[in-house]
Design goal:
CATH topology: 60s Ribosomal Protein L30, Chain: A
Number of strands: 7
Distance between the termini: 66 Å
Radius of gyration: 27 Å
CATH architecture: 2-Layer Sandwich
Number of domains: 1
CATH superfamily: OmpA-like domain
Mean pLDDT: 80
Shape: extended
Helix content: 55-70%
Order of helices and strands: HEEHEHHEEEHEH
CATH class: Alpha Beta
Largest sheet: 5 strands, mixed
Number of helices: 6
């Protein structure tokens, strides 16, 4: 092979390399655009489901707000003194019992309704403690507080059998120990121990992928 042929082959190889590099870059850019579009669609779908459920809960006089850090979550706003616990205790106070007897049936009727039940992944009941005691003790105590709320809701809220079973299936308990301590409003950085001993509720809406899998499962069963 003479020098002229070698130069031609070298030029051809270089051109092919440049072409493949350009095609790879174009493919990557198209993939990024596609994934970004898909993410936006998933985000919008999840956000829209959350908005609808949030609006329905608000119309039922249940105080809720968006979780700014998670497009799939709804947080319940419980008044400062409604679900507090005594130090080192998991017993629900009379005021908390009265609150739950009203709150749990309204909440359950909404999340277990035919139009919502398939769009909700879980109702999370999250317990907390103040800063007293060691981590191991506080973790168990916070879990016990969440469990006491769930037990009371299931057994003392006058739920019918269908709603009771639905609430049991959707609910999960979680103990956070002394994480997320609440401050005294007038003194940021100083712990309000009464408010820190609490239980919070959070609804988790199903993602786009979970809804799609559910729909595909229903379609496959109908064939």
């Amino acid at each position: 092979m003479d020098n002229h042929e070698q130069d031609d082959n070298s030029a051809l190889g270089s051109a092919l390399t440049d072409l493949m590099t350009s095609l790879t870059v174009i493919f990557i850019l198209l993939l990024v655009v596609y994934l970004n579009h898909s993410y936006q669609e998933v985000y919008k779908g999840s956000a829209s489901r959350r908005e609808r459920i949030l609006e329905e809960l608000t119309l039922s006089n249940i105080k809720v707000k968006k979780d700014k850090s998670d497009p799939l979550s709804i947080i319940f706003e419980v008044k400062d003194d409604e679900l507090q616990f005594d130090t080192n205790k998991d017993v629900i106070k009379p005021k908390g019992q009265a609150y739950l007897k009203t709150f749990v049936p309204k909440l359950t009727a909404s999340i277990c309704s035919p139009k919502n039940i398939n769009e909700i992944q879980a109702l999370q009941i999250i317990g907390y403690t103040d800063s007293e005691g060691d981590d191991e003790h506080n973790l168990k105590l916070s879990q016990d507080r969440a469990l006491s709320i769930l037990k009371f809701g299931l057994n003392n809220s006058k739920l019918n059998n269908k709603h009771r079973e639905c609430l049991l299936n959707l609910s999960s308990i979680n103990g956070r120990g002394e994480r997320n301590l609440l401050p005294i409003k007038s003194k940021p950085g100083k712990e309000n121990k009464n408010l820190s001993r609490r239980v919070e509720f959070q609804i988790r809406v199903k993602s786009y992928e979970q809804i799609k899998q559910l729909q595909e499962g229903v379609l496959s069963k109908s064939k």
